[in-house]
Amino acid sequence: MVSPIVVQVVVDKPLVQGFDYLWDSRRLGGSPEIGQLVEVPFGRSSLVAMVIKVGAHSDFEMQKLKSISSLAPLPPLDPAALRLINFASQYYIHALGETIIPTIPQMLKKPENWEKIPQKLIAAEEKLKKKGQQEQSEGFIQESDLNVEQKQALEKLRRCNRKEFRAILLQGQTGSGKTAVFLNWLSEALDDASAQVLLLVPEINLTPQLERRVRAYFPEKKMVVLHSGVTEKERGIAWHEAITGKAQIILGTRLAALTPLPNLRAIVVDEEHDPSYKQQDGIRYSARDLAIWRAHDVKVPILLSSATPSLETWLAAKAGRYEHIRLDQRAQGAGLPRVHLINTRDPQNQYSPGDIGKPKGKSLITKTLANAISKNLEDKKQSLILINRRGYAPVLSCSACTWLSKCQQCSSYTVMHKAGALTKKSVLSCHHCGLAKPIPSHCPDCGNADLKTLGQGTQKIEDAIEEMWSGARVLRVDTDSSRSSKGAEDLFQEIHQGKVDIVVGTQMIAKGHDYQNIGLVGVLDADGRLFSQDFRAAERLFAQLVQVAGRAGRSRKEGQASGDIYIETQYPESAVFQYLLRHDVDGFLSHIANERQEAGLPPFSYQALVHAEAKNLDKAIQFLSALKVQLKSQGLISDGLRVYDPVPKAVMRVAGTERAQLLIESDSRKQLQKVLEAVDRGLRENSQGRISKTARVRWLIERDPVAI
Ligand SMILES: [Zn+2]
Ligand SMILES: [Zn+2]
């Protein structure tokens, strides 16, 4: 008698255990390999599962085991990809199945389509091949055209052994030509016909630009792009080309970080400081951190590029753990933008009655900034106005009573959006739960018809600018405008083609775009983030201001003056602004490093959050308090490990669910890991999946949170 084949699989559920099934080799052939996708009967339905073990024994009665239903016609994940996902699962305290299955594109997870997959892939690849030939490429800079500093950086990069792990920080001013350096560096890794490289960018809006450049550098190489904007079909094909080694260049956002790449030779993480690399739902991983682990695991170099490195990376470079390569000049020879701080409390900067050009109503822009914009318009240059809030106004209020437009489902205000932005009519929309309601004509509390907006968002500023400069072409760029009318890429093209004079936008306009004719950048309302409860807020604000300032004065024409950035603030003396004034990135980083060290905050300690969600806040808090008591009684709270009191989240109620969190902090990564594993075990004993059986509290452990 032939001994039975027992296959252990994991499924996409918050369950730590694997499940045993029998393999019917007469029906399914041979035996499956670890890392292959199968379909299994599960409960009353069936699920797609990943094979993690193949053997002859089971801890369960053989007779009771069910059989695998079918096998996907896909290659198994390679051992390195499996190691990476295993690590992610352990480090981020997330079950293996719910870590691994979501990384596989939807298209490949439909058992009813498995038979057709091979033909489908061939047909789709043919189609894409034809399309690919028409795609644009631009931005190629020959190695001989690099400036001296870029050449030196490239030399240093090439000295790093290509077959060894090395993390390299490429720190360079905005406009210093970091991309040209790393693309030239990658060409060496790509010499080998089968080699694959992974290129990560923080957000989808930055991919088209980099895509064109990569194509210009490597026209012969097969590149695939992975981000949330590509269709499921394209994603399926891209993933398949990556795992089979057909694609050499994998360009994508954080979701590309877990793509299986059997011939990986180098990784680049562009704008490595960007918080978008942190996944904020499901498994809350940092794509940058996983990329570093991955490079280490498969012994390849990884380059982290930024003008404003994260404190973690910068300290590692300072300490010599990472190679530190710098580019301190702008590649096109233009100087850095001049920084101007406009003290909004200083009457000199504000309009007074009778001023020429004073707007009719209350001015939303200081006189100083308005004059600079006028001058910039005269100079035929574009202006970029940054305000970090979309919508018309963050809240609507009643002038007769205390009514404010609050969301009924969340502990937040609803934002007023003008007609045409989100829907045809003006609405009050909640940015947390998405609920949108028509604007009331009268105060719901007292019936007063005089409702006023408080504060301002992109739409209000757009209106104000259109009124002040009636002849200027104004464009608003935020997630509303990029969703409703044209895609973001079209909006950026309008800026590139000089079809607009003044751009008003959120952080979407600040990052990485290589605009050629921006003479002025204005920043409104930056102060809110100076006093945030989140200790990383200042670091983020600084990085964003450097980024947006860097959009100015990037012209490739000889002799062009550098641009200007004007920041409106009530607190010009703040460290963030003072270091920015001097373009002193290193000074700022060493300033916040001291602050963090004194306070024992990351990266001088390691943190994790336990999130709890329930119908009411008390339940969530009680659940976390009980957890804290339990940790104490188990003797897990010792020197160097701090468990804080549970607190409500900054936005406590979202969509009717109330939320709290418990912060755990440790001086040692290992100790934190041990405690989190114990927390996970303890919670799972009394939970179904991640919902506690008695209190019905939904919980989640998050490692290295980026927002507290
Ligand atoms: Zn009222
Ligand atoms: Zn809401």
Topology of this structure?
Elements (H helix, E strand, L loop, with lengths): L4 E7 L7 E5 L1 H4 L8 E6 L2 E11 L14 E2 L7 H13 L4 H5 L16 H16 L15 H12 L6 E7 L5 H12 L6 E5 L6 H11 L5 E4 L5 H12 L5 E4 L11 E7 L16 H12 L2 E6 L4 H8 L4 E5 L10 E6 L23 H12 L3 E6 L7 E4 L16 E3 L9 E3 L6 E3 L12 E4 L3 H11 L5 E4 L1 H6 L3 H9 L5 E4 L12 E7 L12 H13 L14 E6 L5 H7 L3 H15 L6 E9 L2 H17 L7 E3 L3 E8 L2 E10 L2 H17 L1 E2 L2 E2 L5 E6 L5
Parallel strand pairs: 6-11, 6-12, 7-9, 7-10, 8-9, 10-11, 13-23, 14-21, 14-22, 20-21, 22-23
Antiparallel strand pairs: 1-2, 1-4, 3-4, 3-5, 15-19, 16-17, 17-18, 24-27, 24-30, 25-27, 26-27, 28-29
This protein binds zinc ion (2 copies).
The site of one zinc ion has 7 residues, from loops.
Please tell me about this protein's structure:
- The protein is of the alpha/beta class.
- It is built from 19 helices and 30 strands.
- It has a 7-stranded parallel β-sheet with strand order 8-9-7-10-11-6-12, with helices on both faces.
- A hairpin with a 2-residue loop joins β28 and β29 (691-692).
- The chain is globular, with a radius of gyration of 27 Å.
- The mean pLDDT is 91.
- The protein binds zinc ion (2 copies).
- One zinc ion binds next to loops.
Highlighted features:
single chain, 708 residues, alpha/beta, GIY-YIG endonuclease, Rossmann fold, 5 domains, seven-stranded parallel beta sheet, six-stranded parallel beta sheet
